[in-house]
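Section: protein folds

Sequence with per-residue tokens
===
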Amino acid sequence: MTVHIPEAALARSEPDPNTAERQALEDWVDYHRATLLSKCQGLTGEQLTLASTPPSPMTLLGLVRHMTLVERWWFRMHAAREAIGLIYATDDWDNADFEDLEGADADGNVAAFVAECESSRQAVRDVPLDEVVNSRGDHPERTTTVRWIYLHMLEEYARHNGHADLLRERIDGATGE
């Protein structure tokens, strides 16, 4: 059975090139969120866990789980300063988002991604782009702006959506934007 992806989460249109900066950043991140989900559309949980090529363990479901973690890390834990824990990764297994897929619930993982994206949108909607935030990672002395976080997320999605293109093509030959 194919994994359920809500139609609204697949809605994708190229952002208006003449919009204000904040709206452009939000629209482009949404575009990339929908792109990742479109690469998973119509596949089964088993297909979503097919690895690329040895030695890489990368899978579409691993990418969805990773981006769920990244959404939470950057938008909610950094930009919005929410006191919440990570999802999937642990202190003992940093790459569990990519690697701990045995018995993974693909429908649940996709739903968690969609929910995390909505939580991220809500968490940062009123945080100014120029707001300076402290790092929550290994380098607490570092700071960044919310604008930088949006730009970093665009880079993160663009890179991983390229991986998703190749993974999807390997699974069933499907290509496209």
